[in-house]
């Protein structure tokens, strides 16, 4: 077999959110080890945040390319990212991104990559590539079952989803309807999938979501290609301030502690914070709780919690604002479970590291992700009440079931899933490389 000599140049363009940029960067790193060179395009504010994650060995093979958005009222450059973006400015950010299409086209014309890998909500990206005869591939970083659910709803709104275990409760439907009420977003989402050249890349693995990959392949008449979990190496996550947290974990017994985090872009309401706080207190289980607030929400951490909560939990818990080294915490031997919103990145991380998930989905695709976690047996559900609210007693009950009563079945399945992913290595990436090479004509 002839060995490929030519390096393939790829322009990668993720949506302007950390949860999208991170897996794109992980895929970029894996491709560079296989004779690909990467141009990584985003706004300056986003690129500045990932520079520390590009070590010396990637500095020549991954080049950062700045995309400048137009100046719009109320949207300064620090808001050219979803991180810290006030919710009322999301529509403005999307508008600014759409208005940057001419700037992006100039980048494409200048770089002339062999291949373009792009995200959702930006149909003008593959359109620009097609005009220049550059193959363009959509890379979706959310769960395949969630994409299948939305696609089915767009194509067959009057029919039930063909996988009955996946549904939305009435209170969840309200959140989904709100997210999908912009018909333009639904069009952009669907259009990006339709324009993908022969294949679509999916952040998943076949053993977990094979039937949903097959379902989408039939609908779009394209091959759905899993790229694996793309979980960042925890060793890379060490940052100032995290060492004390790891030392605190070192003092805890094995499998005695839970990590509690609801993602980088969901902010608990005052009521939700109280129920989680009292649930953790009632459980009597050790915990690290990561809390985030809107940048516009000027809140003192201790004042945002129930009175004297910090005093009462004492050495049993840590409450940290903003950031914590999630993967590094999850792989620590004292961690028994992950109380999670079930964002897809967190689901992949906990599966890769063999940590059972306690599911508390909050919005968008998260309820479907949570049902997948429960369906494959690697998590336990915190049920909401009839009004759709979480209650402290239920939160405490499920935490204790996993940590104190030691639900062995869930723990065993989580470890088995992790071992399976470790054994597979990077088999998915090798298949992805073959598919991408086939798209490029030399």
UniProtKB/TrEMBL annotation:
Enzyme class: transferase
Keyword Phosphoprotein part of the UniProt annotation: no
One Pfam family of this chain: UDPGT
Residue ranges of domain Glycosyltransferase N-terminal in the record: 7-224
Top-level taxonomic group: Eukaryota
Name of the molecule in the record: Glycosyltransferase
Entry-linked PROSITE patterns: UDPGT
Family indicated by similarity: Belongs to the UDP-glycosyltransferase family.
